Amino acid sequence: MAATSSISNLGRVGDESNEPASLDELYNINIVPSELFLKFRKQIESFRVGVNLELYNFPANEYQAKFVLKPISSDRRWKFIYEPLHGDIRLLSKKIPLTKYLNLQVGIGHSFHLNATGWKWKLSTCLGGDGVSQIRNKTSIGLCQGVDLRIGWRAEYILPEIHGEVGTGEPMFNMNYGRLHASIDRLEAIVTH
Predict the structure, then answer these.
(1) What's the CA gap between 64 and 87, in Å, rounded?
(2) Residue 157 sits in which domain range?
(3) Tally of structural domains, the chain
């Protein structure tokens, strides 16, 4: 969220003067992740059991622990999540592709603290943004046998634009240099036994 507002508040280059903005204003890369995950996984017959320890660093320090159970098969259709600190259980479907870039996920859950049961759905995509093009992705790196590092990253950008006018008093040739804000949002260490 903060990254989107910082890009949109930068304004357009060349509106007040024809001088380009500094590189610091045009390109910003943040390599400090706001989410740190440590995941332990073990295969038991045809299921994967996992324990996730999650630390959310921004905007406030928050800690979560999750127990995850899901089938290992390639066509797995569900996963079960239990959060002992919040007293929540959830049964989620896998992400169902609706188009090449749009996915749907549905689930049902119960909160023991609130004594409430409900269901939810989520449409997600790796592309999007409010007036700003955005890409979100995860990259996995195998460190050694049974230990993987997964990096969740995001890039928000406005492509450069060349424009001009004739006979209106505006410059015949002008250029907006575009913007790029890239950040590492999540860092996950995954230990598989």
Answers:
(1) 11
(2) 2-192
(3) 1
